Amino acid sequence: MATKQSYLPSRDVLDRYQLTVPDQYLALYYDLETVAWLLAVQLWGVADYLTTWYSMESGAGYESTEIVSTIILNYGHMGHFGFKLGVFAAAGLLAYAIPRPYRIAVPIGFLVAGAILTINNALVIVSAL
């Protein structure tokens, strides 16, 4: 039977960053980081993509971000999808380079941006109905 690999940092790493965090809170933090990434993918990756696609295809709205609108005009919505995948890959590498306690800021940034963009797109769609 394989043992589960621990992703918790050792005490010497915590001491190096002068962090005094009990182990049970570290486990909760890593669970929150995972949840933040999942929500970021759902909101910025999926919900924003789908609401942008629907608003453009239905004529309710348009993409106002210049780089994304250029990608959509030249490569279609699959190009938009590929762009989002590339941005997530770059963000994952960036998050990997950031020390553990501060790493959660990357998915939270995507989560907040995704929520704002999705709500905006939904309002555009609803106002056009």
Describe the structure.
The protein has 129 residues and is mainly alpha-helical. The protein has one domain (19-128). It is 76% helix and 0% strand. The protein has helices at 11-16, 23-58, 66-97, 105-128. The protein starts with 10 loop residues before the first helix and ends with a helix. 14% of the residues are buried. The model is unreliable at 1-5 (pLDDT under 50).
Overall structural domain count = 1
Q: With helices defined by DSSP (H or I, 4 residues minimum), what is the helix count? A: 4
Total number of beta strands: 0
Spell out the helices and strands N to C. Answer: HHHH
SSE topology sketch:
Layout: H1 11-16, H2 23-58, H3 66-97, H4 105-128
Helix pairs in contact: 2-3, 2-4
Task: Record keyword descriptors for this entry.
129 residues, elongated, mainly alpha
Question: How would you sum up this structure in a few lines?
Answer:
With 129 residues, the chain is an all-alpha fold. The protein has helices spanning 11-16, 23-58, 66-97, 105-128.
